[in-house]
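Re: that chain you flagged

S.,

Sorry for the slow reply, it's been a week of failed gels. I finally had a moment to sit down with the sequence you sent. For the record, here it is as I used it:
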Amino acid sequence: MARRRPMRMAYSPVTNMLRRSYVAVDQALERDIPVEEVMGEHDEKRAKALKGRRLKREEMAERRHFLQTSLGLTGAALGAALLGVPRPAFAGDVDPDVRIVVIGGGLSGLRCAHRLNELGIPSTLYEAHPSRLGGRCFSDTTFFEEGAEVEHGGSFINTEHVSMRHLVINLGFSLREINGGSFGDGEAFYHIDGAFYTNAEANDDWFDMAPKFRQALNDAHYPQTFDAHTEEGVRLDNLPMTEWLAEIGAPDRFSKLVQSDTVMEYGLDIEANHALAPLYLLAWNSRSTIEPLTGGDERFGVIGGNDQVITAMAAELPPGTIVMGKELIALSGNPDGPYTLTFQDGTTDVADILVLAQPISKLQELDIEPSLFNSFLPAHQLGIQNMLMAKNSKLHLQFNERTWINPVDVGGGQILTPNGNCYQFPLDGFQLTWDETVGEPLRHQAGIALVVRRQQGGRAPGQ
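Prediction finished late last night. Pasting the structure tokens below so you have them in one place:
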């Protein structure tokens, strides 16, 4: 009797992603290099390994996989993924009578409709704004002189954002090196309690703190979820950030820098951030340097503005796919569909498969039929009810020259050259600056310092 080959265990895309991430983290720590660099190496190897596969087989497999696992996973999605019910089985092409509706014309909602269209699957996308798509992907290339590009929304694309980088290239655009808005060979400046806290001083403190961050990461590995977590993960998730920093003996200036960084990245007030927030920003950094503070390399931007991706995807959709000025206000139906959608203008629609690609604040305002809401997975119910809405704001300024890269006397006989990145504490004025025009071909050395100012911070629902 022939010996049967052992079956290979099948992993979900999320599981595969996490496995690759864990391997990359281990290698980065062992080699003392950034995680992004290791993941970039892995991506290149993986791309070479995939080369030569037949496109038709790949597209058909992706088509089936998308229908089985992806619909309903963009934003907070209804249908089988969000509800605690079995997924419908799609053996081949989608039933032409199945009506797929996407709510929200931001980057995630528009990409969902765009990908469905690439697979030959029709959908309808409703956007509340009467004239603009893109949500928080919002570029401006007309306000400032020389066509300087600024991003009202998300500015950066990280090296590990492989899908986004591929999408940009496939749509015919090019990326420019931004490097987190740092200009030249200078260094980031940290201004703590009215005095300079140099990068060298921060790195010295980080050298002592890094092992404690990594031990905490080992005890509360990423990600901690409602159904897969450790005891220490639960403790840190409920422990205020400031208390944890005191618990591990963080020096005062280092603690304040971490607080400023965490508030900047998550957009919540200091007291609203718990210990896992700074841990998952910094714990993977090399022990020799605290940077990047942002949790990623923020390496790229789209030449001509990030929201060109939005415009290009929308242009590739069939006429009638996108309906503007339709704000969803109420949702009802059976847990496994169909769903009745009620819009602000009094009109209604019915969807067999529904994707809600909306900000958490909009989901909190949505009138969802109680019996339908109660059929959501408990974790999704808690997320919609309790997640805080971040609130940072930007102030764009244009100058005739980059005065912020001139050498500075930081005291003690030290003259240092800044790169445009500056963190501030306390958070009573600007919080962070960076150079928004790194890599732009301006005729004159005009640049824009992007100042991020704190306003009211995170807010609870109803506030």
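What I noticed first: Residues 71-138+307-386 form a domain with the FAD/NAD(P)-binding domain fold (CATH 3.50.50.60).

Talk soon,
D.
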